[in-house]
Amino acid sequence: MKNAYIFPGQGAQFVGMGKDLYESNSESKILFESANEILGFRITDLMFNGTDEDLKQTKVTQPAVFLHSVIKALSIGSDFKPNMVAGHSLGEFSALVANKTLNFEDALKLVYARAIAMQKACEIQPSTMAAVLGLDDEKVEEICASITNEIVVPANYNCPGQLVISGSINGINLACDLLKTAGAKRALVLSVGGAFHSPLMEPARKELAEAIMHTKFNEPICPIYQNYVAKAVTNIDEIKENLIAQLTAPVKWTQSVLAMVNDGATNFYECGPGTVLQGLVKKISKDTVAQSIL
Predict the structure, then answer these.
(1) What Cα–Cα distance (Å) separates residue 252 from each residue in 37, 77, 86?
(2) pLDDT at 133
(3) Does a structural domain hold residue 250?
(4) Of these residues, 197, 198, 256, 285, which one is catalytic?
(5) Among 129, 136, 182, 271, whose CB has the most other CB atoms within 10 angstroms?
(6) 37-70 pLDDT, tens digit each
């Protein structure tokens, strides 16, 4: 039996996240207060008592989800024994703390740099994403590729029959019409800041690359299954390259989960806010046990 720990990304946030850890665990409180100092503002105030709008800001959402996920994992102590880890988009940084490739402080700085860079990229060109339900991945890919005068690409392979696309506003609107005509149950434009995991994130990719190249990475204690390649990775240079490439490439979550199952994962533990990832795992591999950590 192998334990796989999985970490959510942007969208899993909720008001009050992490408050129980802050109030019940002295070591967790120290980490939260350290994060406030590193970031230069009291993110805990926004996490515990802010509004949904506060938490939707990319510069808040990403470090908030990261903090909740990592501090929850660290609170387990000696019982935290992953055989493999993975994270959905932003969650990859949480996973890299879990397998000791990154330390807490450096990872938080990278997450915040990533969030600011992505926010700036969103402001350069208005763009968006849409969730497509009920079509084969191949059909969605085909329709995206058929739109040549706008940017429209697959962004998140979440589970069979659920693929998120990303691109320019006109391109996404056109794609949604074509996808519905092709038989999609739903093609719903999402309320997001921009076209994550698309070529429109290129300015952010360059900024993140610079930050990553100046950050110390350590030998991992177990493999990470990265979004960009959907397979086990332990080489530090490859981990860095995949983290950078992830910003403009699709999140291969379906493929990553299948690779973990194929490599012996029997129990998946979602570590962080929400329960979205365990639901996706169950749809990808129906005989797999997936749950939140206690």
Answers:
(1) 34, 30, 11
(2) 98
(3) yes
(4) 197
(5) 271
(6) 999 999 999 999 999 999 988 899 999 999 999 9
- What is the C-alpha to C-alpha distance for residues 49 and 16, in angstroms, rounded to an integer? 6
Write down the catalytic residue from 69, 89, 166, 168: 89
Count of domains for the chain: 2
Is 194 within the bounds of a domain?
no
Pairing of strands 232-233, 186-189: unpaired
Q: Is 89 a catalytic residue?
A: yes
The per-residue pLDDT for range 12-30, each reduced to its tens digit, is: 999 999 999 999 999 999 9
Kindly provide the b/e burial profile for residues 71-90, where b requires at least 16 CB atoms within 10 angstroms of the residue's own CB.
bbbbbeeeebebbbbbbbbb
Taking CA atoms, 25 is separated from 43, 77, 160, 198, in Å, by 18, 12, 39, 39
pLDDT at 1 over 90: no
pLDDT at position 273 over 90: yes
The range of the structural domain enclosing residue 157 comes to: 127-189
Say yes or no: 66 and 9 in one domain: yes
pLDDT digits (tens, 9 = 90+) for 86-135: 999 999 999 999 999 999 999 999 999 999 999 999 999 889 999 999 99
* C-alpha span between 179 and 3 (Å, rounded): 37
Provide the strand spans (E) within 120-161.
127-133, 152-159
State whether 105 and 248 are in the same domain. yes
* pLDDT confidence band for 193 (50 / 70 / 90): confident
CA-CA-CA-CA torsion for 108, 126, 160, 225, nearest 10 degrees?
A: -30
Query: Are residues 208 and 162 part of one domain?
Result: no
Among 192, 190, 191, which Cα is nearest to 201's? Answer: 192
Query: Does residue 68 have an active-site annotation?
Result: no
Torsional sign, CA 238, 244, 248, 254 = positive
CB-based contacts of 225, cutoff 8 Å, min separation 6: 84, 85, 86, 231, 232, 233, 256, 259, 260
Residues in the chain: 294
